[in-house]
Amino acid sequence: MENMSVDTFSTDINSITEKILAQERLLKELNTELENLREDKMKFELVKSKKSNLDEKIKRLEGIANLQKSLEAEIIELDAGIKDCLVEINLFESIENEYNLAKRELDNLLETVKAIEVKKAELEREYILLKENMALLNEEIWHKTRVKDALLQLMKVNQWLEEHFLSLVELVEKQVMLKAHHDFSEIFQKWFNILIDDERLAIKIDDTFSPLIEQDGYNNDYTHLSGGEKTAAAFAYRLALNQVINNLMSGIKTNGLLILDEPTDGFSEQQLDKLRDVLQELKTNQIIIVSHENKIESFVDNVIRFEKINGISRVVSNT
Hints:
The protein is mainly alpha-helical. The chain has a domain at 196-318: 3-Layer(aba) Sandwich (Rossmann fold), CATH 3.40.50.300. The protein has 3 helices and 7 strands. Strand 1 (201-205) and strand 2 (211-215) form a beta hairpin. The protein starts with a helix and ends with a strand.
C-alpha cells in the first residue's frame, strides 16, 4: 500500500511539475506577447504623433495657401492702387513744385523771424542791463546826494566848531583847569602843612601840577627834602589828586574808598600823629592802609596781618 501511495504521489508530482512547466512556458509566451504589444503600442503612438504632426502641417499649408490667395488678391488691389497713385502723382507734380517753392519761401521767412527774435532777445538783454545800470546810478546818486547833504551839514558844524565851539571849549577848559589847579594847590598845601609843621618850608603847585618847594625864601629841589618831607609831599599830592578827581567826576563809584600803600615811609612819631588827624578830617567811608608801621594799628578799626613764607602770603590774624 505504501508503494502505491509513493508511486501515486510521484505521478502527481510529475503531473504538477509538468503543469508548472507548462504554466511557465505559457507565462513566458505571454510576456513575449506583452513586450510585442508594448512595442506595437509605441509604434502606434509614434505613428499617431507623426499623423498628428502631418495633420497640423497640412492645416498650416492650407492656411498658407489661403493666405497666399488673400495676398495675391491684395497685391492685385495694390497694383491697381499704385496705378491710380501714379496717375495722381502725375496730376500733382505741378502742385509739388508749388509746394517746394512755398516751403523754401517759408524756410526763408522762418530764418528771418529767427534772426529777428535773436535781435529782440539781445535788445531785451541790453534793456535789462540799462535798466539795472540806471537803478544803480539812481541809487548811487541818492547816496551821493545824502553824502553831499551830510558833508554840507558837517562843514557847517565844523565851521561852527572852529569859529565858536572850540574857543568856548578852550575857555571852559581853561576855567576848569584854573579851578582844578586852584583847588589842587589849596588841598595839597593843606595836607602838607598838617603833616609838616615848619614855617620855613612852603610848597605849592606850578602850572604843570608839579610841586614847587620854597625853603627859607629860596627855591629848593624836591630831591633835597628829607625822607619824611618827601613822603609827606607825596602823600599830600595823592590825597589832593584823589579829592580833586572825585570832585570833578562825581560818577566815580569808588569816591568813598581810599587805598594807601606804605604812606608813612620816613615819618617821625609826630608826623604819624598828624596822619591820624588827616585821616579823620578826610571823612572817607573806607580807608585801606598797607603798612609795616605798628603805630597805625592804634587808630584804625580793623587790622589784618599777613605773613609771607616761601614766597606765599597768607593771613595770620584778623582783629
